[in-house]
Design goal:
single chain, mainly alpha, two-stranded antiparallel ribbon, 11 helices, 2 strands, 3% strand, globular, disordered N terminus
């Protein structure tokens, strides 16, 4: 078929409702009930957040050292790496098999119309899947585990304050809900920094993936992993428990996997059972210079990097990039 008569491929396979909306907490006029529902739905009941909380407690109970044993570096650090590598492999591997290898829900709720994974010289080993797995395990899990081991050591030696549920139950529970708030702030500014001229040489490894799969989420350069997991250092400023450290790093690590499946959610019996990736971030992987944050706090709206998923949003992005090139 001649190119000029060939049907034009749709820009998106699955296009959710647009314009994209941020949390009702930041909408006017105030919508307190809608805001409460937004945050309730992000935690309860069958949600990624709550599953990560459960995984964090399971890892702390059955696959972690004692605080006393971490006063001195030893083989317990290797144990942390093995546990994290196993969890990442199970989560990312299972999602890859469901969505991409066996296509259990076909292309239903898949954002990008192009097939995943791809091959090409831009990828390590000339394979997107092998590239993603290598950087996720070799760099991502290793740096994640070193940060976790460092926090265990700091808590064991009194450099970071430790609380327990028995001594401070309200704060103990509150930290789980506050970590995503910190993530919203930290991730936006860290991400914008990675898109500066001096840092994009490292972030470009992640952006090899403009169509994404579960293994793409943590496929990053080691320098980027240092910034990404460096979020956990906030626990030097706030008293915490080792389970909070595990949850914090799992939240960053596993949420990167679940939000990069390339699909909006998991379908079972033709009903969406769990929400996964947001169209907001899928747009970032397509156009790069927009949507650096998330939808809980509208940093992108406040600082001029917002793309709402509409044709008008795409046009505004083009004008912004054109104006930047002129300056």
């Amino acid at each position: 078929m001649p190119a000029e008569t060939a049907p034009k491929r749709a820009e998106w396979n699955h296009l959710p409702d647009t314009p994209i909306m941020v949390s009702p907490l930041w909408q006017w006029p105030p919508k307190p009930l809608a805001a409460a529902k937004w945050y309730f739905d992000s935690w309860f009941f069958i949600t990624v957040n709550m599953m990560i909380v459960g995984l964090a407690f399971a890892a702390f109970t059955w696959a972690s050292p004692t605080l006393e044993s971490t006063q001195t570096p030893a083989l317990w650090i290797v144990g942390i790496w093995i546990r994290n590598a196993a969890i990442v492999s199970i989560v990312a591997g299972s999602l890859h098999l469901w969505f991409h290898k066996y296509a259990m829900q076909g292309t239903d709720l898949k954002y990008d119309p192009r097939p995943f994974p791809r091959n090409g010289r831009m990828f390590t080993f000339s394979s997107q899947l092998k590239d993603n797995i290598f950087w996720t395990i070799a760099s991502g899990v290793t740096i994640w585990s070193l940060f976790e081991a460092g926090m265990w050591w700091a808590m064991a030696n009194g450099f970071a304050s430790v609380i327990t549920y028995q001594t401070n139950p309200v704060w103990f529970i509150a930290i789980f809900f506050l970590i995503p708030v910190w993530e919203s702030f930290y991730f936006y500014w860290m991400h914008r920094f990675l898109h500066t001229d001096i840092m994009y040489r490292f972030h470009a490894l992640h952006h090899r993936n403009n169509d994404i799969g579960p293994w793409s989420g943590l496929s990053m350069h080691p320098v980027e992993h240092l910034f990404y997991f460096g979020s956990v250092l906030v626990h030097f400023a706030i008293a915490s428990h080792p389970v909070h450290i595990i949850f914090h790093l799992m939240f960053y690590g596993l949420l990167a996997i679940t939000t990069h499946t390339g699909f909006e959610g998991v379908l079972f019996r033709n009903k969406k059972r769990m929400h996964l990736g947001n169209f907001h971030h899928q747009i970032h992987h397509r156009y790069f210079e927009c949507n650096y944050g998330n939808l809980d706090v509208p940093w992108d709206k406040l600082f001029g990097s917002w793309h709402d998923g509409t044709a008008a949003g795409k046009a505004r992005l083009a004008e912004r990039l054109k104006a930047r090139r002129r300056t």
